[in-house]
Amino acid sequence: MSSRTLSLNENIYEYLLQNIRPESDAMRELREVTHAKLRMHVMQVSPEQAAFMALLCRLMNAKKTIEVGTFTGYSALAVAEVLPEGGTVVACDISKEWTDIGREYWEQAGVADKIDLRLGPAGDTLDGLISNGLQRSFDFAFIDADKSNYDDYYEKCLVLLRQGGTIAIDNVLWGGRTADPSVIDIDTVALRELNKKISFDERVFSTMLPIGDGLTLAQKL
Question: Residue 171 — left, alpha, or beta (φ > 0 → left; ψ -120 to 50 → alpha)?
Fold first, then answer.
């Protein structure tokens, strides 16, 4: 037993990776090619976080999901692989270059038809979903994009989520910067303010987990 979360050294972290559900070949190859090709590969979620979100979607019997910030599509692939026939990930991103990397692996995994990629500002995409009458119809949303707009994405995803649906918000610890009041850049402040807002938001039941760079889960009540 432990009264606080265990710190992960390299040995423990490698052991963890060896004992979670193995990645599909497509997921592993996409993760590796992203790391090899892009300096910004740190934007990709970790294998254990991807596995956690996939399990969460399975537990929820999720069918319709939203992803705000797709990068090369690793997290979208992880979720799409566990969605039932007819399931959809509406994947929002502004970069054709980055998302094009993922397309090959979505096809390889046989889930390309489940990933509805929308290129353009995510706020506009979410507004379009709302205006098309899709409020309260999504099961799960994952927010991992430009931090200064997180609050806007959170509010719009809440509108789109059904009662009992869940929003997962990435980077809420932000390398520890959100916990340091002396750090006042725009992204850190935006994350810090949203963290506080969600902790008191009576529209959701939420928790914050020390997985990856910090992950908040907020279930719509």
Answer: left
